[in-house]
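stage 2 :: seqdesign
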């Protein structure tokens, strides 16, 4: 597992192996893991580690293969909702789905079709993020061989009954160059350059991609991730974006923070043993009280848990 150099060891529990998506209850010590293979939410008590597979209602408007990009949890009028960003692979359309989360059941409140369509059959990435002001946004992006990056972005609001309203911020916007790991910050999207390590500059882009600015940043990290390390979409806290990186082959895991105010990278020191959280479904989430949780499969082939969820 991951551990800091403090005297208090972080807690870690068994996670859900395989292709998953993860969100945290904003207040209670509970994680909701969507198991893509079972098409069901699994509730994990982050005090006891107990798992419970929830009866999960299936979407009615999405009939083909579904690609779940991300899920995000909110509280409205004392009820808990999970918002999912999903692509209907057959139609190429995007959808936001609101689930009401009870103890044993995840019931669909609304299936909100977005006025966006899939740009390309090429590999793409997507996430739901909550910025430092509490605004929820979703983004999907592609990188192309001609060194271009295209993206959709949407502002998401959830009312007291769990109904979704959305505002399309970007529809098939094009950026010159290869960019990735976007972060929402102060009415702009901050992109990191792809295949340029260490990241000594970032691209600040207005939502409609009409205003762009290259910002230089300094690297104050003593141990930059090795070439070939995988970077995970960040979480935002105040004026900082926090990234988890892992290199399963070298059994290395690190946390790096991009301080937008100071315009520099800083390393948050962590140690890791043989149980590196890695794989294609690793997610980093932040709870309302500031704790960071990491979920994903274990790189140790002999680990009986197969996956972990850890406070880091």
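stage 2 :: out
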């Amino acid at each position: 597992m991951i551990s800091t150099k403090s005297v208090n060891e972080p807690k870690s529990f068994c996670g859900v192996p395989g292709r998953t998506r993860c969100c945290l209850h904003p207040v209670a010590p509970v994680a909701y893991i969507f198991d893509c293979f079972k098409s069901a939410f699994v509730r994990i008590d982050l005090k006891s580690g107990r798992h419970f597979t929830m009866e999960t209602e299936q979407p009615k408007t999405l009939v083909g293969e579904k690609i779940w990009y991300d899920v995000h949890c909110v509280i409205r009028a004392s009820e808990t909702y999970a918002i999912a960003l999903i692509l209907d692979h057959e139609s190429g359309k995007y959808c936001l789905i609101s689930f009401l989360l009870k103890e044993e059941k995840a019931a669909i409140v609304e299936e909100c079709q977005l006025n966006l369509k899939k740009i390309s059959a090429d590999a793409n990435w997507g996430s739901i993020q909550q910025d430092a002001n509490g605004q929820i946004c979703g983004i999907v992006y592609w990188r192309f061989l001609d060194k271009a990056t295209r993206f959709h972005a949407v502002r998401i609001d959830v009312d007291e009954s769990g109904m979704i309203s959305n505002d399309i911020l970007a529809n098939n916007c094009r950026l010159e160059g290869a960019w990735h790991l976007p972060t929402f910050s102060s009415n702009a999207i901050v992109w990191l350059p792809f295949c340029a390590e260490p990241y000594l500059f970032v691209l600040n882009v207005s939502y409609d991609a009409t205003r762009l600015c290259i910002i230089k940043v300094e690297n104050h990290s003593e141990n930059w991730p090795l070439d070939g390390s995988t970077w995970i979409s960040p979480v935002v806290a105040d004026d900082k974006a926090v990234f988890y990186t892992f290199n399963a082959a070298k059994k290395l895991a690190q946390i790096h923070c991009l301080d937008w105010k100071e315009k520099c990278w800083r390393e948050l020191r962590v140690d890791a043993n043989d149980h590196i959280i890695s794989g294609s479904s690793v997610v980093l989430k932040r709870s309302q009280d500031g704790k960071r949780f990491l979920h994903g499969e274990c790189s140790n082939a002999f680990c009986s848990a197969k996956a972990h969820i850890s406070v880091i």
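stage 3 :: structure notes
- The first strand starts at residue 2 and ends at 3.
- Residues 188 and 206 are 5 Å apart (CA to CA).
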